Write the structure tokens for this entry.
Amino acid sequence: MDFLEIPPGRQPLKRWYLAVMLWFFGRAIQAAARVDKGVKSEFAAMPDQYTFCLGAFPAGPYLVVGKDAKGRVRYMGSSLTNHTIHLTLMFKSITHLFLAFTFQESTPVANARDRLFVNGDVPHACAVVRIMDMIQVFLLPKPLAKLAVKRYPAWPLKRRTIVRAQVLFRAVAGL
């Protein structure tokens, strides 16, 4: 007996929203790696020319971030074909990625509900999740950030204000 395979719907609005969010999130990672000590230290533990990807299985959208030969963190776009990917963090569907990026559930909750799979080194994957949490705290107002991260950090005033403003400005400006 043959079974008819039904492909999932295209969900263009979710795809567009996530593409914009991942684009801005990638730029914010690049910006925070230049101005924030916490993000810098997480990337310092990764080898040079290390690249990771975050996205939705099977067809994206994606974000690719990596360190170049000089150790600088760069947002490398959304294409997986142009880069060697060392670590892949994939949500099992675009709906699961949408839940995470509309801040309805945090990354640890998504992991506990088996919505996320990792291909690569687990210590580096944990570092990327910590980086994602810091970026979400930088980008979001406190009530939303509390939904997006497991524990809201008790950062000093300078990090909550000046560094956050620098990250936001650099992410918008693309610096």
About this structure: The CA atoms of residues 29 and 135 lie 7 Å apart.
